[in-house]
Amino acid sequence: MTIPRSHPRYESLVRRERLVRAWKQGVVVLEGLVAQGRGEAWDYLFGEETIAPALVAERAAAAHLLAASRAVISVNGNVAALAAREVVQLARAIPARIEVNLFHRTESRVKKIVRILERAGARNVLGLRPNARIPGIESKRALSHRDGVFGADVVLVPLEDGDRAEALVRMGKVVISVDLNPLSRTSQRATIPIVDELTRAILNLKKFSEELKANPEEAVRVRRAYRRSGNLGAGYSFVEWRLRHLRRGLVRREKRPAAKKRKRATHRAAGRHRQ
Ligand code: ATP
Ligand code: MG
User: Fold this and answer.
1) What separation in angstroms does the CA of 29 have from each of 15, 26, 35, 82, 100?
2) Ligand 1 contacts CB of residue 42 (under 6 A)
3) How far apart are the CA of 248 and the centre of ligand 2, in A?
4) Whole-model pTM above 0.85?
C-alpha cells in the first residue's frame, strides 16, 4: 500500500507499515505489533507530536548519556524496524555501545536484528554471545553482556518491558526509557522516562547530544535541573488539558445547532413584529 504524503497521519501509517513488513520477515513478533497499537493510541492523544515535557526529558537524557562512562543502547525488534539508522547515528554521537536485547529471544531473531543494525552502519553490536544475567529476571530475558547493558552505568531502553526496566534500576543504573504510555511500569520505574514516539525521541536525543557536547556547562545544568516527578506530572497535565480541550470542542459543536435554532426563532419573531 502506498500512503499519500498528504495523509494527516502519514508518519504514523508509514511506521505501522514498516512494522508489519518486519513482522513478515521475522524481525518483529506479534506482541510487538500489539505494543505498537498501544503506543499509537497514546500518540493519538498527544496529537502525534512531541509534547514539551518529553523535550525536557530528552534533553536531560542526552546530558546523562554524554556524562556516562559506559553508555549502552538496548535494541529490540520494534526499535530495529522503526529506527535502526537513527539509533546507529545516536550511538556514534554519544558514543555508546549497542546491544540487541529481546523479550522473546531466539538466536535467529537476534542475528536478523544485528544484521539490520550493521547494514545501518553499526559495528561490534552485542547480543549474540551474552555472558551475564540481569539479577531478578527469569529465563532468557535476563541474558546480557558485561560490556553491554549488564556493565553499563547509563542505559537507553526504548520500548522496554516493565520488569526489566525495574531490574536495571535496582542494579543502580541510570535507566532512560522511551515509551508513549506514561502509565506503563517502564515509565513509572525508569530514572528518566521519555514519553514520546520512538523515532522522534531518538532524533531529538541525537540533536540534544550534539548540542550539549558543544556546551558542557549547560549539560551539567540540564542534568541537575531535571526533576523526574515534575516532568511526569507535566505530562499528565498535558493529557488533562488535551481532554478538556477536546470536551470543549464537543460542547461548542453541540451548542451550534441550538444557536441556529435561537437565531431562526429570533428571525421569526422579528418577522412577526414586522407584520
Ligand atoms: P509495562 O510492562 O511497562 O507495564 P506494557 O506491557 O504495556 O507496559 P510493553 O509491551 O512491556 O508494555 O512495552 C511496550 C510499550 O511501548 C507500550 O507501553 C507502548 O505504549 C509503547 N510503544 C509501542 N510502540 C511505541 C513507539 N513507536 N514509540 C513509543 N512507545 C511505543
Ligand atoms: Mg510489559
Assistant:
1) 15, 7, 10, 14, 15
2) yes
3) 34
4) yes
